[in-house]
Amino acid sequence: MASPASQGGRPRQPSLAQLRAFAAVAEHLHFREAAAEIGMSQPALSGAVSALEEALGVQLLERTTRKVLLSPAGERLAARARTVLEAVGDLMEEAEAARAPFTGVLRLGVIPTVAPYLLPAVLRLVHDTYPDLDLQVHEEQTASLLDGLAHGRLDLLLLAVPLGVPQITELPLFDEDFVLVAPKDHWLGGRGDIPRQALQELDLLLLDEGHCLRDQALDICREAGRDENTPVTTSAAGLSTLVQLVAGGLGVTLLPRTALRVETGRNDQLTTGYFADPAPSRRIALAMRTGAARQDEFEQFAEALRAALRGLPVRMVKG
Q1: HSE-up of 316 (CA within 13 Å, CB side)?
Q2: Which residues have a Cβ under 8 Å from the Cβ of 249 and sit 6 or more positions away?
Q3: Closest CA to 133 of 109, 158, 97, 169
Q4: Which residues contact 295 (CB under 8 A, 6 or more apart)?
Q5: Half-sphere exposure of residue 296, counting CA atoms within 13 Å on the CB side?
Q6: Does residue 9 surpass a pLDDT of 60?
Q7: Which of 215-253 are b and which e, b meaning 16 or more Cβ less than 10 Å from the residue's Cβ?
Q8: What would the mean pLDDT of 206-218 be, rounded to a whole number?
Q9: At 275, phi and psi to the nearest 5?
């Protein structure tokens, strides 16, 4: 029979079953042993190898009554066949891992005003509950995180919401109040009923442009009736520096409750005050691409994270 190659046609695509049959014969050089290894009947095995030779237009085996030998082409193509079968095996293993939840890489983006205070709980959760998850953390400002999520550089975000961005699904975790942090002996220190209107005339220190916490604080001040022309001193790139400036007497600031212990616990030059209900607050959530392939997994992760964060001074939000 003329082969496709001899007829000038293009070789047909071989099947995995044909490659598997040929690889087994190439290893054992014996049809019965090869058939037993891969669980095929001997006639089916012989037919698969013949079909592969016809598809490729190449004689792979030299058959005699006593033994089977590889042709020169068969010697070369046997190695290729084994490489293809190994690659397919790797593909199936990777697909199996992808089907299993909480395995593989999870690229989590976190804003700077959340990372130092929530990451310990996140890392404990992953270590204790999802040991096969390869968590990679990226601390960036909100705009950069949203860009990374949109372009596939990041899988999941931990940040303040609402975002107001299309094609982003938010999985709320908790609400937390803002606390006034002031220099020691400040007249508002120690109070638990500070009216928001007190923000109208205070010397306020905020984070630099680009931090969502700055925008949230400014929104709170506007709601409190603060004149937009009242100067706001912006001097810090991070909350730790901001708190040090407050301790030095340069003004007051607003901190989320989750940051309070870390940022003020070791400084005796600071005092805190709490706002009257309803206190100004922010919501923290996970955010993912709407319709993400791992949506079910991310929703389970959000539920587990809510449970892991219950010891914080926050109000949990149901998913």
Answers
A1: 13
A2: 183
A3: 97
A4: 169, 288
A5: 4
A6: no
A7: ebbeebbeebebeeeeebeeebeebeebbbbbbeeebbb
A8: 82
A9: -80, 150
Averaged pLDDT for residues 161-185: 94
Number of residues written out for the chain: 319
Tell me how far apart the alpha carbons of residues 248 and 20 are, in angstroms, rounded to a whole number.
75
Q: Enumerate the H helices of 231-294 as residue ranges.
A: 239-247, 257-264
List all residues 6 or more positions away from 111 whose beta carbon is below 8 Å from its beta carbon: 139, 140, 141, 142, 145, 158, 159, 160, 211, 212
Euclidean distance between CA atoms 11 and 55, whole angstroms:
5
CA distance 274 to 257: 10
3-class SS of residue 201: coil
Cis, bond preceding 162 (omega within 30 deg of 0): yes
- Amino acid identity, residue 266? R
Q: For residue 6, is pLDDT > 80?
A: no
pLDDT in tens, 40-50: 999 999 999 99
Locate 145 and state its tokens: 């995180």
pLDDT confidence tier of residue 134, bands split at 50, 70 and 90: very high
CA dist 217 and 213 (Å) reads 6
Question: What is the model's pLDDT at position 2?
Answer: 41
